[in-house]
């Protein structure tokens, strides 16, 4: 059974933008921002609209007390196995790794809401960009529920007895998550005679305090000088590319790993790489962030993203490195539009642009309009990926976390490749091949 969550968004300081207004968190001088607030929950996101903005910054730090968490043990990454290729997958920080890593998994042991036990627990990690808790147990009486929120309660998600054990909660932006058990009135005293009640938390994912972009390996897929720009920089000079970029989403997988995905077709369909996720179980624990982009070209303010959960995997293939899946709460992300696969094989020299979330960054686009064709254009339309003739190669700037990005033709504004390999040239699986294989699903 699916977990039912709700979100409560408080009032924040207003910021006037062109046609938008929203909440902002202040960043320290000289600090390059990194994370933002949330605006949606599973299965039907409610609350803040995409017009709200936050600050891409290291959040306010709350000191950790000895009672906050046990001394953590760092868990191994849930990365997938490396491909049998010399070039690295774009989601990797090294050629032998799997998905791009952004944080740490910490082992904890907390039980809340049991007889005589605490009802509230704070998980504080100074400097963390987000905190995400994992429930190994959700045993409550009807009417009871648990919330996971930030200390100010401006971001809060609710879970009840219908939610399954062994699931992640939605991440909380900032360095502190507060888990609190709320109990229904119990006139019969059932809790006093029911000894197995309780909320168990066995893991916490803590996001990096610094941008993953600073990690070794990013440069291996930036071909020359990085000419990619914040997506919003294209709003006036290339409005079509800017509009198309809105269909692209940041994926946060298993709490600490990153890829990019995008809406393909008008139905509830998302696509990313097979090396990013392969099963419905993985999709179910994947956060899909839409509208995670800067509010101003080169600025630090970012739109508050609309977040939904991944849902069912419909099709996946390792050779062609794709996974097609659905999301819960689809109605909340329809407004961001969708992209279409090009059924025609691209030609050499055809100009391209790539909306993406490199290293988990707010949306960026490589391939400026009018840029020299050789920098972001089809280099070889008959390139070898996992199979002969499967890929298209290009020199568009990408980075770890860009796996699953759409490679879009400027001539048609259709997707000619599903990006998956870095290495200069970089490459993606041909869109015309994917269109044929996925036709029945789209």
UniProtKB/TrEMBL annotation:
PANTHER family: LYSYL ENDOPEPTIDASE. Residues 35-55, 71-100 are annotated as: Disordered. Pfam families: Trypsin_2 (PF13365). This is Trypsin-like peptidase domain-containing protein. InterPro entries: Peptidase_S1_PA, Peptidase_S1_PA_chymotrypsin. Residues 1-27 form the signal peptide. Keywords: Signal. Residues 76-86 have a biased composition (Low complexity). The keyword ATP-binding does not apply. It comes from Actinoplanes flavus.
């Amino acid at each position: 059974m699916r977990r039912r969550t709700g979100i409560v968004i408080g009032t924040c300081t207003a910021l006037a933008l062109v046609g938008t207004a929203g909440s902002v968190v202040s960043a320290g001088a000289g600090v390059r921002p990194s994370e933002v607030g949330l605006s949606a929950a599973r299965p039907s996101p409610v609350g803040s609209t995409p017009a709200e903005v936050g600050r891409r910054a290291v959040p306010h730090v709350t000191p950790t007390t000895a009672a906050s968490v046990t001394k953590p043990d760092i868990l191994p990454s849930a990365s997938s196995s490396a491909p049998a290729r010399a070039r690295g997958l774009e989601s990797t920080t090294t050629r032998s790794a799997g998905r791009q890593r952004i944080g740490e998994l910490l082992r904890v042991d907390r039980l809340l809401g049991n007889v005589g036990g605490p009802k509230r627990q704070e998980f504080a990690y100074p400097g963390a960009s987000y905190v995400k808790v994992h429930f190994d147990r959700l045993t409550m009486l009807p009417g009871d529920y648990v919330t996971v929120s930030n200390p100010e309660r401006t971001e809060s998600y609710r879970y009840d007895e219908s939610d399954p054990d062994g699931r992640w909660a939605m991440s909380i932006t900032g360095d502190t998550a507060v888990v609190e058990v709320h109990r229904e009135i119990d006139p019969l005293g059932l809790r006093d005679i029911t000894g197995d009640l309780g909320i168990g938390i066995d893991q916490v994912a803590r996001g990096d305090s610094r941008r993953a972009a600073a990690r070794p390996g990013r440069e291996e897929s930036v071909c020359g000088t990085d000419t990619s720009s914040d997506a919003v920089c294209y709003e006036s000079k290339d409005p079509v590319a800017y509009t198309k970029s809105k269909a692209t989403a940041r994926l946060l997988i298993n709490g600490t790993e990153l890829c990019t995905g995008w809406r393909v077709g008008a139905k509830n369909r998302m696509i990313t790489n097979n090396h990013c996720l392969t099963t419905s179980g993985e999709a179910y624990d994947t956060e899909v962030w839409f509208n995670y982009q800067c509010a101003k070209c080169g600025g630090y303010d970012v739109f508050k993203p609309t977040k939904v959960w991944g849902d069912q995997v419909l099709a996946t293939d390792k050779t062609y490195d794709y996974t097609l899946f659905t999301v819960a709460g689809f109605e909340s992300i329809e407004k961001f539009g969708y992209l279409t696969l090009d059924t025609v094989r691209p030609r050499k020299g055809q100009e391209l642009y790539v909306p993406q979330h490199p290293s988990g960054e707010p949306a960026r686009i490589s391939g400026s309009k009018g840029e020299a064709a050789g920098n972001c254009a089809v280099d070889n339309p008959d390139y070898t990926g996992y199979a002969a003739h499967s890929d298209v190669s290009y020199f568009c700037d990408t980075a770890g976390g860009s796996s699953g990005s759409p490679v879009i033709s400027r001539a048609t504004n259709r997707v000619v490749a599903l990006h998956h390999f870095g290495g200069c040239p970089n490459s993606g699986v041909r869109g015309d091949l994917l269109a044929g294989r996925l036709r029945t699903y789209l």
